[in-house]
């Protein structure tokens, strides 16, 4: 399983449908938001895990807590109750000082209010954590980086879908330089982490960040 399951598979489609109904928007726009936001969340988690052993251990524990039962079993409750304060805290832990940047950028691109986008991110956060937690339980070991690599590129024959993706994340996410790969189809995940990392590059202006969000969403179809 890989990130496509989380965005366009059974999990993603249920989240998209609920978000569309909650915000009273069409599902294509809800799908755009999900497809742009989820890769940013996963890349940010990976970056945070590399800051220190303590950070990695904290993320590991959080994934274990969220992965105790099937994410599909949890999905109804998560989507039914709406985001909680704890879910907002997950978003803030993921993005840190970049939380406002992510929220504002998604709001600007979609024309949806920042408070509504914040609610969408808080809805997606426990789903992402639950999905990664489940994948961690099913994996044969390895660190956060190995887990993220399998989710971002698992099952892909493209050689850049393994170590290349991880190397890109480590070099570019949250303030570094971005890569030049611009994947254009759902089957080409090789540049996904490059795009996610380049979004956080402080040298990029709002237009560039908006273009990156379009590219992220475009991987999974608009």
SSE layout and pairings?
Blueprint: H1 3-7, H2 10-23, H3 27-49, H4 53-66, H5 71-81, H6 85-95, H7 99-110, H8 114-138, H9 144-153, H10 163-172, H11 192-199, H12 206-219
Helix pairs in contact: 2-3, 2-5, 2-8, 3-8, 3-9, 3-11, 3-12, 4-8, 5-8, 6-8, 7-8, 7-12, 10-11, 11-12
Report on this structure.
By secondary structure, this protein is mostly helical. The chain has one domain. It is 71% helix and 0% strand. The chain contains 12 helices and no strands. Helix 3 crosses helix 12, helix 5 packs antiparallel against helix 8 and helix 6 crosses helix 8. The longest helix has 25 residues. The protein is globular and about 40 Å long. About 16% of the residues have low confidence.
Average pLDDT over all residues: 76
Strand content: under 5%
- Principal-axes geometry comes out as globular
Supply the number of helical segments: 12
Question: How does the helix and strand content classify structurally?
Answer: mainly alpha
β-strand number: 0
Order of helices and strands: HHHHHHHHHHHH
Q: How many discrete structural domains?
A: 1
The major β-sheet equals: none
Q: Note the quaternary state here.
A: single chain
What is Rg?
16 Å
Query: Low-confidence runs (pLDDT<50, min 5 residues)?
Result: 154-188
Relative helix content: over 70%
State the separation between the terminal residues, measured CA to CA.
Answer: 21 Å
Pfam family, one: DUF937
Protein name: DUF937 domain-containing protein
InterPro entries: DUF937 (IPR009282)
């Amino acid at each position: 399983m890989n990130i496509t399951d989380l965005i366009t598979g059974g999990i993603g489609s249920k989240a998209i449908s609920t978000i569309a109904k909650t915000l009273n928007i069409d599902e294509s726009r809800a799908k755009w938001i999900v497809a742009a936001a989820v890769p940013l969340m996963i890349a940010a988690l990976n970056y945070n895990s590399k800051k220190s052993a303590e950070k990695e251990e904290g993320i590991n524990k959080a994934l274990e807590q969220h992965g105790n039962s099937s994410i599909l079993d949890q999905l109804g409750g998560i989507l039914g109750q709406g985001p909680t304060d704890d879910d907002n805290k997950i978003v803030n832990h993921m993005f840190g000082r970049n939380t406002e940047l992510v929220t504002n950028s998604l709001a600007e691109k979609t024309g949806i209010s920042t408070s509504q986008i914040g609610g969408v991110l808080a809805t997606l956060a426990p789903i992402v954590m639950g999905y990664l937690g489940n994948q961690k339980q099913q994996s044969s070991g390895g660190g956060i980086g190995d887990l993220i690599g399998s989710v971002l590129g698992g099952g892909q024959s493209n050689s850049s879908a393994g170590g290349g993706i991880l190397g890109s994340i480590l070099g570019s996410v949250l303030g570094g330089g971005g890569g030049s790969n611009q994947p254009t189809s759902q089957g080409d995940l090789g540049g996904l982490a490059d795009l996610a990392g380049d979004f956080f590059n402080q040298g990029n202006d709002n237009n560039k960040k908006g273009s990156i969000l379009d590219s992220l969403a475009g991987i999974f179809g608009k």
